[in-house]
Amino acid sequence: MKVLVAVKRVIDYNVKVRVKSDRSDVDLANVKMALNPFCEIAVEEAVRLKEAGAAEEVVVVSIGSKACQEQLRTALALGADRAIQVDAPDQLDSLSVARILQKVAEEESADLILLGKQAIDSDNNQTGQMLAALMDRPQATFASELVIEGETLKVTREIDGGLQTLSLKLPAVVTTDLRLNEPRYASLPNIMKAKKKPLDVKTPEELGAQLAGGVELVSVEPPAERQAGIKVGSVEELVDKLRNEAKVVA
Amino acid sequence: MSILIITEHDNQSLKPVTLNLVTAAQQIGGEIDLLVAGENCQGAAEAAAAVAGVRKVIVADNAAYAHQLAENLSKLVVELAEGYSHILAPGTTTGKNALPRVAALLGVNQLSDVIGIEAADTFKRPIYAGNAIATVKSADAVKVMTVRGTAFDAAEATGGSAAIEACGSVHQHADVSFVDEMLAKSDRPELTAASVVVSGGRGMGNGDNFELLNKVADKLGAAVGASRAAVDAGFVPNDMQVGQTGKMVAPELYIAVGISGAIQHLAGMKDSKVIVAINKDEEAPIFQVADYGLVGDLFEAVPELESRL
Ligand SMILES: Cc1cc2nc3c(=O)[nH]c(=O)nc-3n(C[C@H](O)[C@H](O)[C@H](O)COP(=O)(O)OP(=O)(O)OC[C@H]3O[C@@H](n4cnc5c(N)ncnc54)[C@H](O)[C@@H]3O)c2cc1C
Ligand SMILES: Nc1ncnc2c1ncn2[C@@H]1O[C@H](COP(=O)(O)O)[C@@H](O)[C@H]1O
């Protein structure tokens, strides 16, 4: 089985992003960037499948400017075998990303395609589903457990009401939720080794992927700030405020 | 213009979030149709037909739609899509699962988690865990969007008398099947619809201690939520997680107990009307968004709170 993992370079999850003063976008200059946490979980899962003997090869792919090679190297250091950068503008729209991933998945004849459930910058939560639709393959989003049984995949999904289990025939698309696994740290020797692993660069044109677009970012604004509140000295005071000031408790 | 809303339901009744979507659709403007896809879902279809302001209810009643599998539901919606200017689904796990497939098959991008309607083609949506709000304009012929229910008031559940139209199309993807489901059972209100939410974090120490919060919740008619740390530690199940990657809540009152206030948690609750934080660390970031902060040990404060309510 060959596993393809799509990874995105995003702002580090600890950084609180600021809106540019001209409100054209958020300010990413000199901001710490990282592998999207959900993509990291996807890489970890793929590597575990390989370690368990269920997968032969793990290929990671990222679509973006050259800078995303840094995150591809991180994925290689975590245990992926080979990487592909598809050279394209950063923050490409999801449908374009899904179309490019479709071409890569076809070229690679991937049996399992793992993505994060959500990129923590765009918060779109749609690329994996789009890819599955374009390929007319089954999907399991928000996966918290994944079991391979021959040609089928049993996936437990985190849904609003609890947990749901689906059975999918490969090839299939899975998007990861937080509790699927806890990613390892890359060891220094593995970081060194990753520098020598193959990293190919391709373009959407070479892959024959048609870009979409259609959505324009008009402006970005900071969210409404909350008024600074007060500290209360006791539970008694708290209950009094809730009853008589905020009037949210009877 | 006409708008198709994919309803969320349990076959017998509509989930409340559908009513919030009707309001969003009214703000866009145009005729509003509802799709009820399920199995033995006549009850939900009748509830949908009673919603004020609805023109037509399309019912697809078939085993293929029993579990709202994205592969099947998306093909059904694409088949029905012709003529609609907008296709809306709630930003729930069901909506997020299926709607991007609809968008991809229609060759358009999806607008995720819309919280504001500026014009029929221009919308507001949060990005970066709600630390920025983007205004986006779509040039696509059909706007496919998930909508955050808490950002819109609920439309009237009754007063309408829409026509019910059956759709017999069956789309069944051969390579996916439902195995089973473990749904949390609770007598408390649903997190995203509750007017009061009491949430616990890692500070709760263990799952048993959530009983302290349950007691407060019972007095307030509240739902109980949790931080990711509390879920990861196994204190409570995943469906209780509030935050960027969990549930988005905006109740009248949110009480955060033993939660530090990481940006990912704030993303899911900072639109609450009144926020209370109980934390023993006076530097905890949760206090920056709390209207009323109580610095102290939760194991003393929460039982006292319960007794005073
Ligand atoms: C990609 C990603 C997505 C995430 N999504 C979410 C999400 O959706 N929701 C979410 O919540 N988190 C999410 N997180 C995790 C988030 O970053 C924090 O780790 C998490 O919210 C911390 O939970 P906590 O506040 O319960 O725990 P902690 O940060 O450990 O805080 C515990 C708090 O309890 C207080 N405390 C301890 N004992 C007591 C006591 N006896 N009395 C009073 N106070 C006490 C402490 O002072 C402390 O402030 C996400 C993280 C990542 C990387
Ligand atoms: N530019 C990209 N390159 C590679 N993978 C991506 C890219 N954008 C999104 N993805 C994948 O799609 C997932 C969901 O992203 P999104 O739909 O944007 O929230 C991410 O976790 C990645 O796995």
From TrEMBL, chain A:
SMART domains noted in UniProt: ETF
The keyword Signal is assigned to this record: no
GO molecular function: electron transfer activity
Domain Electron transfer flavoprotein alpha/beta-subunit N-terminal: 23-211
GO biological process, alphabetically ordered: carboxylic acid catabolic process
Source species, domain of life: Bacteria
The keyword Transport is assigned to this record: yes
One Pfam family linked to the record: ETF
Cofactor(s) needed by this chain: AMP
UniProt keyword terms in alphabetical order: Electron transport, Transport
Annotated function: The electron transfer flavoprotein serves as a specific electron acceptor for other dehydrogenases. It transfers the electrons to the main respiratory chain via ETF-ubiquinone oxidoreductase (ETF dehydrogenase).
Quaternary context: Heterodimer of an alpha and a beta subunit.
Protein family per UniProt: Belongs to the ETF beta-subunit/FixA family.
Designated name of the protein: Electron transfer flavoprotein subunit beta
Originating organism: Marinobacterium halophilum
TrEMBL record, chain B:
Cofactor list: FAD
Keywords: Electron transport, FAD, Flavoprotein, Transport
Residues reported in the UniProt entry to bind FAD: 202, 227-228, 241-245, 258-265, 279
Matches recorded under Gene3D superfamilies: HUPs, TPP-binding domain
Subunit structure: Heterodimer of an alpha and a beta subunit.
Family: Belongs to the ETF alpha-subunit/FixB family.
Protein name, UniProt field: Electron transfer flavoprotein subunit alpha
